[in-house]
Predict the 3D structure of the following.
Amino acid sequence: MSKKKPEMTIGGTIQVDYEWSVGNAGERFFTEIKDHKRIMGARCRTCGRVMVPPRIFCEECFVDAIEWVEVEPKGTLVTFGDCYFSTDGKRLDEPWILGIVRLNGADGGLIHFIKEAKAEDLKIGMPMEIVFSDERKGHILDISHFRPVKESE
Amino acid sequence: MARKVAIVGVGMQKFEFCKVETIEEMVFDVARNALEDARLSKDDIDAVVTGSAVDAFCGIVNSDKVATDGAGGFLKPTMRNSTSGSSAVSTPILGYNHVASGMYDIVMVICYEKMSENASAQAVFNTVYDEAYVRPIGLNVPIQCGLEARAYLHRYGLTERQMAKVSVKNRGNAISNPYAQLPMKLTVDDVMASPYLSWPVKLLDTSPVTDGARAVILASEDVARELTDSPVWIRGTGRGADSVWFMGRANPDLGRLDYAYLAARQAYEMAGIKDPAVEIDYAEVYDPFTFKEMQHCEALGLCPEGGAGRMIDEGVSWKDGALPVNASGGLQGEGNPIGAGMSRLNWCYLQIQGKAGDCQVSKDVNTAVCNAWGGMYQYNAVMVIGRD
Ligand SMILES: [Zn+2]
């Protein structure tokens, strides 16, 4: 660490509020989740890849020939991370968990909270499912979280 | 046909937390040091290239404007580069392109970052994530690394203790580096006992928040031969990018850095290097986290894919090893002012010149490689330098 620190500083804040468009693909994706609890992917008509999150173009084929297809609200755990720090840097007693789940019927997936499981219960490659929020307004938090698929199902 | 380009001088300064110097003052310091090292004056410089990663760290939007005067850019052509963390090597690549193209003979390349003046580096990092799909979930840097490190260890069967050895090596190496922020004499058990940020990443697997700058002066072949009898040439450059949609990529496995393998292949093809593990004498590898050094050693072909655990276990990458990596201490030991991670290139140059001081490795160094990483698990930039 530095021995000397600045003695004279000027304080200040940069705070600007934004309203970000979710885009053409995002409007369809979030509307379907809100109204029908459906996860939609964008299928590239050239290579057949189903993109989730959906896009209006495939970056590999570089075409905008896309058709919308429904994918399953279930999939495979690609990786996950637990953390003892909140996003604003506070130390937590119990970790929270995020995971990336590749959805069945898609060549991609989503990153979201994992709940109803502890980190030690989770394994890369295990089946997971989406739990939707009761109240939905066209937002990624219309999905409440992922959880492991229950054994009985 | 690209012209040959040499590195003819470097500018160093101490990496620290909470520097008194402003960006302008930091940049002036390293620019002057580089001119002195190259025995050139400001008026010899034809053009200036600056680079830094994330303006939100310093809170000065378009921060290149305050770097210009200190970089010697007064009434000169200047250009700023930013590819997040990979700016550390993509910026000198941009400088290389300026000279190789024949447009300019002598170019000053400056990389800087001031990270200590915001109230929360974590809050700054959160602003780089996608606003619709990622940021509302609250992804933070610890989990970002945990997601990638877990996938990497899982894919190749590597261990936390192997990661810990990288921390021991790099922080230990930094003890010999007069510019280092975080030299530490550690044991593997010390690292293993440090608190988890996100499994398998622990506090001592990370790099610090740092203020600092680095400079490199590049010159055309004619100029370089006038200035020195032993020019160090830029022999190869490479860059690669993957999709920002890391959860929807063609290759979903964050454990394998396709874009880094691509960048390395370009650089080695250009340099005519067929077997980097044999032909590269020394490497400065981008190591913001211990496992990143391991992934990058593999992508750079310094060990077989999946072989980075054995590489550290067998001592290959230690300072006295067959292929030393980060004898300077790397980002973990020297400090991690993101863009100014160009220090990796500076240290490759110093090793080849035999001017690395107490960090100098005992073996001969004729050819060295460095790289940098940035974006959403997304970019890599690679540079190979060496003597004739
Ligand atoms: Zn396609």
Observations:
- The two ends of chain B are 18 Å apart (CA to CA).
- Chain B is about 35% helix and 20% strand.
- Chain B has a mean pLDDT of 97.
